[in-house]
Amino acid sequence: MMKLKFCGFKTIADVQKAKDLNIDAIGFIHYKKSKRYVDIQTINQFIQIIPNTIEKVIVFVNPDIDTLDAIIEGTGVTAIQLHGDEPLTTIQYIREKRKNIKIIKALPATNRKELKKNIEKYKSLVDQFIIDTPSQTYGGTGQVYDWQMLEGLEDVDYLVAGGMDEQNIRKIRTLSLNHNGYDIASGIETNQEKDLTKMHTIIELVKGDYKNDEKYTNRSR
Asked: What is the DSSP letter of 188?
């Protein structure tokens, strides 16, 4: 079954929309230069209302040790996503700090050779990759890249990011890729707020069903 990670939540209202849906992970961005930045206290409030069946992912860009400690010790985070140029020592520190935490490494899809090189660099230390559109802002562009460079990637647990919405998911499904799912932020938004209809449409497309949402079911009859 394909995995879905919905990312970039900024308000409790948006978290409420998604917390009972059939998704695998919800992501919060703790990077001050991001338009979707949220602070640690707010992230912890969000995490408290999310069921245990959904991974709680916090996204960092080149975090320092103090920040990692504050997140790991002060919140109920279950996964950490590194979206910058983090050295291997940062990943090793997280692993030693909490052995059961999931570690996700985001990589830019610059070119096939560079991508494979980076996968080999991190593969033994991380649990999953997210392959995103290259940008100076470390993601969040809402733009796609040439997905064909992912062809031939085998034995790699990765999600496709970068401009994922209903239309682009339909396109990517026509290719022969070995991806395990999608990481989506702008593709489930309308006017910078999470859009429940878009979320349901993507869930139905990717997973073929809904979960625990009588309001939506009743409304769509």
From this structure: G
3-state SS, residue 26 = strand
- Rounded to 5, what percent of the chain is helix, strand, coil? 35, 20, 45
Dump pLDDT digits (tens) for 85-137.
999 999 999 999 999 999 999 999 999 999 999 999 999 999 999 999 987 65
Distance CA 200, CA 213 (A): 10
Tokens representing residue 132 in the block: 């995103």
Band of residue 217 on the pLDDT scale cut at 50, 70, 90: very low
CB 129 within 8 A of CB 159: yes
> Does the predicted model carry a pTM greater than 0.85?
yes
Question: Measured between alpha carbons, how far apart are the two ends of the chain, in Å?
Answer: 27
Residues whose CB falls within 8 Å of the CB of residue 100, separated by 6 or more in sequence, listed in order? none
Domains and CATH numbers, the chain: 3-219 (3.20.20.70)
Specify the 3-state DSSP secondary structure of 130: strand
Token readout for 167 is: 């239309």
Does 218 have pLDDT greater than 50? no
What DSSP character marks residue 165?
-
Q: Tokens 């917390």 map to which residue?
A: 19
Give alpha helix (H) positions in 23-178. Answer: 40-48, 65-74, 88-97, 112-122, 166-172
The token pair at 133 is 């559109």
